[in-house]
Design a protein that fits this description.
Order of helices and strands: HEEEEEEHEEEHHEHHHEEHHEHHEE
Strand content: 15-25%
Radius of gyration: 28 Å
Largest sheet: 5 strands, mixed, barrel
Shape: globular
Number of strands: 15
Strand order of the largest sheet: 4-5-6-8-7
Distance between the termini: 40 Å
Oligomer: single chain
Helix content: 25-40%
Number of helices: 11
């Protein structure tokens, strides 16, 4: 493959890469994305000195990955194994170096160190067992499940993983693979698919900071107290410290400047927080009326039951039996049966909660069915 490179003007400066948590972690990316990542111009790879290449996914600097997949081809050389690993999105070559335990040794060389009374620790036998166990975990056949971690390199126009750790995974009932797919999907949603951005450092961003703090305060309150429904005045006092702690705009030497009162600032802050929470799906209004009542999405048991019933009933229909129900179909049915005001963001949180509880399973992106 021809390695794609990024315009140097678009790359984050290399001195800032360490600010991204993904830079120092083994990124659990799909093989498809590993093969399509753009290579850095600032720190290109060098096969001569085995320097590690740096790649970018959504501007996140990446040089080492963590992959779980099925072995689809394998070759063995004197010093290494070469495995082709398929995770369902693509196949990548993994170069796995043999450890010292693979080297043939004459067990008799240990004999003089293993003499002892009858029944004592037998070093020769234990070393043989250790070598056999190690070889069984590292020598894989086609069709077996392999987990491999290590830096990514492009060698001879082919992208591959230089394994620092690799081993066979025993997964007879696919529990490990299901858990892996759910974790990777969540990592993409929360981290990988959000471009790397530096936090604002200007002092004029205090309003953004206050809004972020206020949003987290309301989220923590809803979660810790298992709140199902609330009205704005129920949570208004929680934000009072944020308004009280803001610096005064006018000093004694200046004339007071007309502006909103503390009460008005508090109400405006809460209004903005509620809008953010609705956009994120954390809360929603089941019925829009003069009585402003908000429902906490993940605590609304009736909503979770309604969505689960929709998926259970419709998954039995021939139209949805194979692929499952699409999220837009579920949203339409939930709005018809439960609440016209249910947002897609709120439904996504409900589906995530049901999936984490193993009530439903996603058959593919945005398709769901019953277990």
């Amino acid at each position: 493959m021809q390695a794609a490179t990024m315009d140097p003007a678009e790359e984050p400066p290399s001195m800032l890469w360490g600010l991204d948590p993904m830079f120092s972690a083994h990124a659990r990316l799909y093989v498809r994305d590993i093969l399509q990542m753009t290579e850095s111009i600032q720190v290109p790879g060098n096969d001569t000195y085995r320097n590690t290449s740096i790649y970018f996914y959504n501007l996140h600097p990446i040089y080492k990955v963590d992959v779980l997949g099925t072995v689809v081809y394998q070759r063995e050389r004197e010093d290494f194994f070469c495995y082709g690993v398929d995770d369902g999105t693509g196949v990548i070559n993994c170069l796995c170096w043999k450890k010292d335990l693979f080297k043939e040794e004459d067990p008799t060389t240990w004999g003089k160190h293993s003499d002892g009374a009858h029944g004592s620790f037998n070093l020769v036998a234990e070393m043989k067992k250790l070598r056999q166990a190690h070889q069984s975990r590292c020598r894989l056949e086609i069709g077996e499940l392999l987990r491999v971690r290590g830096p990514v390199k492009t060698s001879r126009q082919q992208r591959e993983i230089m394994a620092s750790t690799y081993y066979k995974v025993n997964d007879p009932v696919m529990a490990v693979q299901i858990e892996w797919m759910m974790e990777v999907h969540e990592l993409y949603r929360r981290c990988y698919d959000k471009p790397f951005q530096l936090q604002p450092t200007a002092t004029g961003d205090s309003a953004i900071s206050s809004l972020s703090k206020a949003t987290n305060i309301i989220k923590d309150f809803l979660k810790q107290n298992s709140v199902t429904r609330f009205r704005p005045y129920d949570v208004l006092d929680l934000l009072q410290p944020l308004i009280s702690s803001q610096p005064k705009a006018a000093s004694a030497a200046q004339e007071p400047v007309a502006g909103p009162s503390a009460c008005q600032q508090l109400r405006q802050l809460l209004k903005e927080v509620l809008k953010i929470l609705q956009d994120e799906g954390v809360v929603y209004r089941k019925v829009k009326s003069q009585d402003e009542v908000y429902n906490a999405t993940e605590q609304d048991k009736d909503l979770l039951i309604a969505v689960k019933d929709i998926i259970r009933e419709d998954s039995k229909r021939e139209k949805y039996a194979e692929k499952g129900c699409h999220i837009l179909h579920i949203l339409s049915a939930a709005r018809h049966r439960y609440s016209l005001n249910l947002s897609k963001a709120a439904l996504e949180l409900v589906l995530k909660s049901l999936e984490c509880n193993s009530d439903i399973v996603s058959t593919r992106d945005n398709y769901y069915t019953m277990f």
